[in-house]
Amino acid sequence: MGGSDAIELFNLQDQTQLVSPCLTVHGTCKNATGARMIQVLHPQLPRLSYPLNESGFKATIILTPGENRLTFATDTNKSKTVTCYYTPLLQDPPIHLCLLVAKDSPLEFDSPKVQRDKEGGNGLDLAVKKLRVGARLMQAYTNEQMMRAGFGNRTFRFLEEFTWDTTFQQRSEMRNTVKIHILRSDKSTKEIRDANLAQQNPNASDAGGLFGVAMDALQKYGGPFADRVKPVQAAVMFLDTHWDGNLITAHAALGGGTDEVKLAIFGSHALFAWPPHLEQLVEYFTDETRTSKKEVANDCDECGTHWEAFTLTLGAFLHEIGHSLGCPHEESGVMLRDYTTLNRSFVTREAFSIRTNSYGAKSPIYPKEECTWHRLDLVRFLYHPSFTLPQDYLDPSFLRPGEIDKFTEPKPSIYALGDDLCRITSRTGVYLIEIVCGDLTKAYIEYLPVSLGGPGPQHDLTLSLSELRSLIPPNEMPEHGNSFGLKLLSVNAPGLEIGKFPDFLKVTFIPMDQYGFPRGVQGVKSQLLGNPSGGQDVGIVPIDIRRVTAVRIYHGGALDGMRFYFSSQTESANPPVPPRNYLGKLVKSFKATSIDNTSGKNVLFGYETGSYTDAVLEEGEYITGFNVRCGGWIDALQIVTNEGRVTKMLGNEGGGGLIELRPPEGQYILGLYGNVGQWVDAMGIIYGRL
């Protein structure tokens, strides 16, 4: 580091290792009398200039792979030089940025005459330039938010290509830059602009239909989107979005996807307000030109000026990308609608806002006045594979490499214990517990990786109702204290949600002597998996786990039923407690065999079919639980024993989500309950101490 002490950089130190190709450097010029501008000089890139307001500056810069020697120099000859190093993390799964065009598209986006004259048109090439700059801003913003949270320099990456770099105004070099896939839809412009597809049309018959249009276009495009082995991430903007004077057609703000494609979609109705080059960033973020509603849309009536149109739509597209990365709506931040102030993360002076009828935040605009990613979003990102740093692999609690979807590990399991207590188990570890009041999370418990000062994801937890209630904000207690939900997020596994959690903890102890167990044995119902409203309630089917010698599992495209066979000899001793190793893999399997004697005592849960698989237990072996795949019914089931043996996943092994159905440690399966229709619609276990 060299140069004057008059320039202080708040978020960039000498010799910093970075993984984001774009960075917004925050700083101040002390005793900078007369200084109005600061330039950033890079030996390989065009110089960039940013204004000083109240001595503060925010300089958004591009980095090149390897060493970056950056000189910050004011117009009063004060300077500071720092060296940082940028390493692209090509091993992390990228987001593919796309422009979707109709099969007969005019290849133009909506733009008022004043902007067309200023920019020389409104064609496809210009749209690509603008989208590339917007992508870099999203990366820089997210990197800053992760760093402020204490998670280091981390951000997601967009897929790049080596081509002429349009990030800067001068076309001088070929560099790695964001690749924009051009998706050609089978739909015509008229079809894409159908009012029944317009999300903001209250009378639309298919307001979410553009999501399917984008999915179809991705599949047609092929390439990375044809690979169904691992989920692909895509963010698609519709080029043919159009304001018809009444509706924004060919636009929907949606994010989510399937287990094969994680997708965010958005319209180009305000792309006219996005800068095509980084040198124009401040100019466009402070452009007070009034939005002409005769020519272009004023989205949600919050885009009265060009800078507000830029800010809102950049933030809204980022919001949808957040959904595709796994983030739900939150009570504040990008995942609410706080992105109307996203501009504050890039400028030190706010222009006049039609939306608020004010000049907004005072210069130099401090972090407390900026829009943020919510803490819960950032914790999710921390465990998302697109945010992986190489050093994460040195911390086993990260459980790298991460997975986006198609999880092979089960959801967490949760069991009511009585006395308003519950036990949570997870094979991979729970990293976040969210307390949901209404539609939004209002409190949470996080378990950060050990390398970031946390205890690491938890494999076995016992929580009390009073402990969880104490975290709820006092103003939420009257309405939600007895009705809040619980959401459990685990590493590389599906999450688990339980509505009305206080009711879940209300345990009714079932006297099991009425089912043939010794007096004093009490059972508790586990969570009911599958569809509680499907089929007919079959009541409790008791199973003395000590006497089960074999199970016949009836299955086809779903679980149809199970018949348990018992030994004639009464067991007096309780089976030993099986060891728990949540990180271990169950690799022993049952050998192909069949039940020799089916005439002995047995019970049936579900019903019999001609398609079945037999599982015969060895002496001293007993069932400790089930691995269940379920969604709208019980798709498939796997039996697990104390010897570590498992059956194959019997039924539709690719259906539903995976969850473990096991009693808490020290307790045993005493029976099954659930609903049965054409197949097993729902099932749970009865568990207790023997």
Automatic annotation (TrEMBL):
Pfam families noted in UniProt: Jacalin, Metallopep
Annotated Jacalin-type lectin domain residues: 523-689
GO cellular component: cytoplasm
InterPro entries noted in UniProt: Jacalin-like_lectin_dom (IPR001229), Jacalin-like_lectin_dom_sf (IPR036404), Metalloproteinase_M10B (IPR053002), Unchr_Zn-peptidase-like (IPR021917)
Descriptive protein name: Jacalin-type lectin domain-containing protein
